[in-house]
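Board notes (copied after class):
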Amino acid sequence: MRIEPVRDVGDGLVDDLARLVPQLSPGRTPPTRAELEALLAQPGVELLAAIDDGRIVGMLTLVVYRIPSGVKARIEAVVVDEAARGRGVGEALTRDALDRAVSAGAQRVELTSRPARETANRLYPRLGFERLETNVYVWWAG
């Protein structure tokens, strides 16, 4: 298995994400080719793919951005294919993202994970993440 940043959108990527996105968020519509192209075109955003035997078995989105107090990063949309779970894919993706964030100057990397994602919630503290006591607020348009 190797971790690579996704640089180009092809039919294989669209198909792999059509398989992975519902595993991450049931009911969510997978991104179209145009949406993936827009994602990859954004400054500071990297889509990382775990590739095994020529197939994407996991993905993670890393967002690095500057605010007045410095450079921060967020890890979003981490998903490992059900068939590949338990093989260190999520850990490899997260470690790679952390290395990239630090290389980009980030002093802090944030992520959220639903409590039901028990495996992920065991992984992140092992990798040095600290659980914060905070309120998370979400505003939904529409």
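Comment from the instructor: The mean pLDDT is 95. The chain is about 35% helix and 25% strand.
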